[in-house]
Amino acid sequence: MIRTRRQYLEYNSARRQSPDWAAGRTNMAFGSVYLVLTMALGLYMNANAALEHGFMLSQFQRSVLGGALFYSNVDAALNIGVGYTLARLPFVEWLSKTVSTLMIAGALLHSGALYAVGFGLLPFGASVAPLGVFIIAATLSIVFFGILGQRLAK
Length: 154
Fold this sequence. Notes:
The protein is mainly α. It has one domain. The protein contains five helices and no strands. The chain has helices spanning 5-16, 19-50, 59-88, 93-118, 129-153. Helix 3 packs antiparallel against helix 4 and helix 4 packs antiparallel against helix 5. The protein is elongated, with a radius of gyration of 19 Å.
């Protein structure tokens, strides 16, 4: 049990050097950057759509990009939440790194593939997006069982 400020600072210093904290910090940083970038892209698209000679996108591309903006915000928030959870819970080192990598890959496969479809860069990207959803769901279930295991151990 931590009783003094010095013990608290020593505990936090050791904790921040653990692999779990590094993996969690990676997800929190990725989620924050991804959120800011997609918000900026959304503002840019809305500003150009208001102009007469803005983006020359079809209605299909606009709807796909609108969905991609929504899903990328959800993916970013999930990455931030999983990163915080990884930083707080004592996972095994390889598991925390795997969960971190899978969450980032799932976000890029899910909403990143939709961006590629919307901009016409990857026509078959819509068939890849469900793989990202599956990866995110599987990773979230691993994190959920980790949280549940911590709660049951107390």
